[in-house]
Amino acid sequence: MLSKIFIIILNWNGKNDTIECLNSLNSICYPYTSDDYKILVVDNASTDNSLRLITEKFPSAQVIKNKTNLGFAGGMNTGIKEAIKHNPQYVLLLNQDIVVEKSFLNKLVGLAESDSKIGIIGPKIYYYNSLKKLWAMGIRFVDGIMWKTKIPYCGTELIGCNETDNAQYDNLKEVESIPGCCMLIRTELIRKIGLMDDSFFLIHEDDDYCLRARKAGYKVCVSPESIIWHKVSTSFRLITETINEYSENSTAVIYYWHRNWLWVLRKHFEKKVFFKVFLTYIFRLLPIMVYKLLCAKKLKSNIIYAYIRSFRDGLFS
Question: How far is CA 240 from CA 35, 138, 143, 203, 253, in A?
Answer without folding.
Answer: 40, 16, 18, 12, 10
